[in-house]
Design goal:
61% of the residues lie in helices and 0% in strands. By secondary structure, it is an all-alpha fold. 37% of the residues are buried. The model has no long low-confidence stretch (mean pLDDT 93).
Length: 216
């Protein structure tokens, strides 16, 4: 099966299984989403959603967040991985938004990527989920499934993002990004997965990947 035919069939299955994927990180606006996504690095969405209510109760705008010191921010997020570095980045990006962008999160990928602690994936998530701009942020679930399904060479996340953007229509990127994440969590785990019983892997997984996962 050609890669494009495979992608089309995968999209139809995802629409059937996960027709309306919710945004997993709780937020109220672009700033709270930006902070939540930054916190989600090496941390589960569930954990982030537990710590952000208290954090955002104390500071839910760049101006308010910049008024907290790193220790105060770290107190709220201490159960998240890499809390010291994240606290520093949250304070510094808040100061930059306050001082250089009138306290607003700009709908500009390049500017977002220039903020402290904000990489391409985080910026892409904010563009997609806060501003509705088509993007295809690649997390660990998407990266491994794209490789497992033969939609990408899987050499790195940049290649995976490029390959997925080629086979899926631009107007579907934001939705498919979430659908693949939820599919990976609910149906297609990284370990102990029976590819023969999976709604997608059973026909889409490459022979090489099947041999690897069966230890052959």
């Amino acid at each position: 099966m050609r890669r494009q035919e495979k992608a089309d069939r995968i999209a139809r299955i995802l629409d059937d299984l996960i027709p309306e994927p919710p945004i997993p990180l709780h937020h109220d606006d672009p700033f709270t989403l930006l902070v939540a996504v930054l916190l989600s690095a090496q941390c589960t969405d569930e954990r982030v959603n537990k710590v952000t209510p208290a954090l955002f109760s104390a500071a839910d705008t760049p101006t308010k967040m910049a008024q907290l010191d790193e220790e105060q921010i770290r107190h709220f997020i201490r159960s998240c991985g890499l809390a010291p570095a994240k606290a520093k980045n949250i304070r510094n990006l808040s100061k930059k938004l306050r001082d250089q962008h009138s306290g607003q999160v700009p709908a500009d990928l390049d500017i977002l990527e220039s903020l402290p602690g904000v990489g391409h994936k985080t910026a892409s998530v904010v563009m997609a989920q806060a501003f509705g701009v088509p993007a295809f942020p690649v997390d660990t679930h998407i990266h491994r499934l794209a490789g497992r399904w033969g939609l990408s060479s899987g050499r790195n996340v940049a290649y995976t993002e490029r390959d997925l953007k080629k086979v899926f229509p631009r107007h579907r990127w934001n939705e498919l990004h979430l659908q693949i994440i939820y599919f990976g969590r609910q149906y297609c785990p990284a370990r102990g997965h029976d590819l023969t019983r999976c709604p997608i892997c059973s026909w889409a997984a490459t022979k090489k990947r099947v041999r690897q996962e069966m230890g052959l």
